[in-house]
Amino acid sequence: MRKTCPHLIVKGVTSFPCYLYDAQRDDIVPTANLGTVKKAEAILDAMGIRDIILNTPSATCCLTLDKMAEHGGNCGEPGHGLSGTTPMHAVHDMEEIPAVVYVSEISHNFEGNAYCFGGGHYRRSHVENALVGKDAATGVWREVIPPSDESIDYHFGIRGGCPVGDTVVMAFRFQIFVTRSDVALVRGLSAGQGELIGIYDSQGRKKA
User: For the chain, first and last CA: distance in Å?
Assistant: First the structure.
């Protein structure tokens, strides 16, 4: 390769996803893609290309980092572990603390169910429930009726009627780049002194 492509420098290999959460095994486990990365490493090694980056991402968090080291990876993308929102975080308390919520409000009721404004739902979010009310103390848990994967999420369905204008709070696996909603950064919540420090669009451009 170095003789036929003298201007090409191979620095690493990657695939996605190399790890996924398996609900039946209740663990983050390697996928077949990890084997592909290892085969690519072996091919490059035989060509004399060594000491490369082996990027083996998906569900990256403290638990996955240990698995990456065990299986030979040396790099992982800082994904949902940063916000504590991998699928495994939904069922276990882990080192990372969930740090993202989706906030909307009830827009209307129709045929026995309530609906809140949409605008950024991710089709693999695994959203199930929402807290609906005027404050955390009096809010009630309601089942979410997510839009079909083929639909644009103008609204989320909420099982049962709710007062129009009530706040809706959900937590789910998100993808900021597909959202049409604003992204608000808040600090000081752990100290009970929440402060809005900026509102951004999905591309990171500050709006307010």
Answer: 51
pLDDT in tens, 100-135: 999 999 999 999 999 999 887 877 788 899 999 999
Point out which residues pair with 102 in neighbouring strands: 170
Residue partners of 38: CB distance under 8 A and separation at least 6: 71, 72
Angle at 64 between CA 62 and CA 68, to 5 degrees: 120
What would the two tokens of residue 79 be?
């994904």
Phi then psi dihedrals of residue 116, to 5 deg: -115, 160
Which residues constitute the domain of residue 183? Answer: 176-208
Residues 111 and 162 in one domain: yes
Upstream peptide bond of 17 is cis (omega within 30 degrees of 0): yes
- Do 169 and 180 have their domain in common? no
The pLDDT of residue 183 is 92
Please tell me the total count of domains within the chain. Answer: 3
186 and 169, same structural domain? no
